[in-house]
């Protein structure tokens, strides 16, 4: 491959390497290992003041993590790849301190009022005891979100391209978009649950609606802002309307489209939670409501944590897809 | 969509030639609507380029040369007058007359190879034309850069890629809109030589807009000097010098003086 073509990736790698090659694998990673062993000691040795289960499990997990970190620290002297873990070490140290503090003020000293402030053990207990239900909820949430989001994104993309391309379609769609789009999807909740045959289909509709608006607007602006010179070039070379839309307008608009898909994903999360609290019998949003009803705050926190992981993972997937499809762009934001 | 001209694809490198086209511009007047008034841009332009001729259009920037080029490409229709290529009215764009802009206008999401293949792909001829793309890329010196993306290219390389995208279609009329205008001066000198060589090799007709007097005189056989807007033809200078030309040729210096005088810039000399 040519010299020029390989210049820019190599250059960015070089910069990153600058950051990482400073050999700081070891010391802080070792400290993190010791810190986690310390956490294990606090958990296991200090008797609990609260009545909690899973103390042994929590202590064991902390000890195992500490052991693994110490081992990585040792390996870091031999295997450079492991030494790279070093840049996570500050975080691991802070987490160890935070967990120890949390454990101290809850389970060990019982300083914070129950049930609002759950101990780490209680948190852990939710996962060991209620995981079938949580997994079921996660599954239902993901399926519901996928249906609504994909539907909304597909319709939004299509209507955005149509708006940007055809003035005749724009004439009809634009006023509708301007009137209905800015309305939060949640405002449709009373109507949607009344009009749709099932609460599941109402939820899909609401999520799709929340996704549709930003996707449409951004796709539209992407298509509308394509340089006319691109069309001139393609037309001179014999391109027909089909080619102009599929091979010129859409690829040129893709960076905008992905901003729209990202914003749509964000609002779809918001609607997902609300819709699940209202209309369904399984789902992470439903679980929140349900556990709060039982004053099971530990369950609520555990559920929130899973929800955060799910949303973060989905955003990550979207960014991965974007990086793949927009590999030709430079200066992409790293998520 | 496939024209007879395209079927005559010559074998690259052998020096064989897709014959240049005759371009006839008859009494063209054109203008733009600006705040309910028509701003006249071109006034009664009549011009003829013979097959294989290299004609430069010289004038102050903003005088309407580029507009004339767009009309010749068929991207816009003139308000008055007739445009013909080989006796056929120009009503819409066609791959036998390709326009090259000051900006390379490469599609940033396509590799250099895919950019060069744009015309073939748009007309559904890519399957038979793959080797053609390779040939043209090596012809412009980008043989090894097919997989690079436009943002990885220097200005000169990007303009070469743009040239390759035009040449793949075997144009019979090449319309150049200040193609070297944004290049650094050294790259510009190199490209002037390369473009002239390509034209001699291929024999297509060239209409090149420029506001660089020396460039026009170095490259073209005829230099049409335009007045300021609304542009009309002020002079038609014949440059009879053989190629490759020398910048310090006394005849070239004399013509340069004359052209600058026609543009109202005598005092500078």
Summarize this structure briefly.
The complex is a heterodimer of chains A (335) and B (269). With 335 residues, chain A is an all-alpha fold.
What does this molecule look like?
The complex is a heterodimer of chains A (335) and B (269). Chain A contains 13 helices and no strands. By secondary structure, chain A is mostly helical. Chain A folds into 2 domains: 86 residues; 198 residues, Orthogonal Bundle (MetI-like fold), CATH 1.10.3720. In chain A, helix 6 runs antiparallel to helix 11, helix 9 packs antiparallel against helix 11 and helix 12 runs antiparallel to helix 13. Chain A is flat, with a radius of gyration of 26 Å. Chain B is an alpha/beta fold and 269 residues long. Chain B has 2 domains: 158 residues, Rossmann fold (3-Layer(aba) Sandwich), CATH 3.40.50.300; 63 residues. Helix content of chain B is 33%, strand content 24%. Chain B has 9 helices and 10 strands. A 6-stranded mixed β-sheet of chain B has the order 6-7-8-3-9-10, sandwiched between helices. The radius of gyration of chain B is 18 Å and the shape is globular. Chains A and B meet through helix 1, helix 10 and helix 11 of A and strand 6 and helix 4 of B.
Relevant terms:
heterodimer, A: 335 residues, mainly alpha, MetI-like fold, 0% strand, B: 269 residues, alpha/beta, Rossmann fold, 2 domains, 6-stranded mixed β-sheet, 10 strands, globular
Assign the CATH architecture of the largest domain in chain A: Orthogonal Bundle
- The percent of residues in helical segments of chain B reads 25-40%
CATH level 3 topology of the largest domain in chain B: Rossmann fold
CATH superfamily of the largest domain in chain A: MetI-like
What structural category characterises the helix and strand content of chain B?
Answer: alpha/beta
Helix content of chain A: over 70%
- Beta-strand fraction estimate of chain B: 15-25%
């Amino acid at each position: 491959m040519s010299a020029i073509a390989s210049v820019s990736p190599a250059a960015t790698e070089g910069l990153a390497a600058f950051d990482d090659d400073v050999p700081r694998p070891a010391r802080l990673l070792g400290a993190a290992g010791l810190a986690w062993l310390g956490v294990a000691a606090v958990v296991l040795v200090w008797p609990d003041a609260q009545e909690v289960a899973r103390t042994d499990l929590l202590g064991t997990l902390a000890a195992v993590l500490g052991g693994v970190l110490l081992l990585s620290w040792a390996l870091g002297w031999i295997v450079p790849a492991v030494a790279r873990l070093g840049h996570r070490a500050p975080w691991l140290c802070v987490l160890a301190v935070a967990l120890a503090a949390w454990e101290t003020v809850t389970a060990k000293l019982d300083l914070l009022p129950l049930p609002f402030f759950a101990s780490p053990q209680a948190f852990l207990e939710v996962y060991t005891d209620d995981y079938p239900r949580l997994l079921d909820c996660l599954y239902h949430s993901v399926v519901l979100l996928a249906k609504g989001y994909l539907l909304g994104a597909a319709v939004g993309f299509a209507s955005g391209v149509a708006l940007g391309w055809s003035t005749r379609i724009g004439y009809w769609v634009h006023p509708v978009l301007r009137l209905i789009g800015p309305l939060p999807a949640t405002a449709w909740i009373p109507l949607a649950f009344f009009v749709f045959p099932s609460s599941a289909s109402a939820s899909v509709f609401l999520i799709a609606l929340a996704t549709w608006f930003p996707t449409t607007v951004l796709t539209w602006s992407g298509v509308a802002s394509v340089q006319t010179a691109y069309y001139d070039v393609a037309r001179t070379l014999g391109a027909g309307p089909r080619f102009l839309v599929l091979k010129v307008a859409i690829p040129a608009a893709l960076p905008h489209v992905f901003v729209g898909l990202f914003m749509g994903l964000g609002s779809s999360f918001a609607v997902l939670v609300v819709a699940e609290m209202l209309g369904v019998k399984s789902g992470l949003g439903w679980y929140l409501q349900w556990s709060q009803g039982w004053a099971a705050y530990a369950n609520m926190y555990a559920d929130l944590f899973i929800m955060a992981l799910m949303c973060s993972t989905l955003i990550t997937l979207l960014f991965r897809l974007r990086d793949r499809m927009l590999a030709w762009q430079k200066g992409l934001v790293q998520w | 969509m496939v024209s007879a001209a395209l079927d005559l694809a010559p074998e690259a490198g052998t020096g064989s030639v897709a014959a240049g086209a005759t371009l006839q511009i008859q009494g063209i007047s054109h203008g733009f609507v600006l705040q309910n008034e028509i701003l006249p841009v071109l006034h009664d332009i009549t011009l003829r380029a013979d097959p294989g001729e290299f004609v430069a259009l010289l004038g102050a920037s903003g005088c309407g040369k580029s507009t004339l080029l767009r009309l010749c490409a068929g991207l816009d229709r003139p308000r008055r007058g007739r445009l013909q290529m080989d006796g056929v009215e120009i009503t819409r764009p066609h791959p036998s007359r390709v326009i090259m802009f000051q900006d390379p206008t490469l599609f940033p999401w396509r590799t250099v190879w895919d950019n060069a293949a744009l015309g073939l792909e748009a007309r559904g001829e890519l399957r038979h034309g793959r080797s053609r793309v390779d040939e043209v890329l090596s012809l412009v010196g980008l043989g090894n850069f097919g997989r690079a993306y436009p943002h990885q290219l220097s200005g000169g390389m990007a303009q070469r890629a743009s040239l390759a995208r035009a040449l793949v279609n075997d144009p019979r009329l090449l319309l150049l809109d200040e193609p070297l205008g944004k290049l650094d001066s050294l790259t510009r000198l190199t490209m002037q030589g390369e473009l002239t060589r390509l034209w001699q090799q291929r024999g297509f007709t060239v209409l090149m807009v420029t506001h660089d007097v020396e460039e026009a005189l170095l490259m073209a056989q005829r230099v049409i000097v335009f007045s300021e807007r609304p542009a009309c033809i002020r002079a038609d200078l014949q440059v009879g010098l053989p190629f490759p030309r020398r910048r310090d040729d006394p005849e070239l210096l004399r013509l340069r003086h004359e052209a600058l005088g026609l543009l109202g810039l005598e005092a500078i000399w």
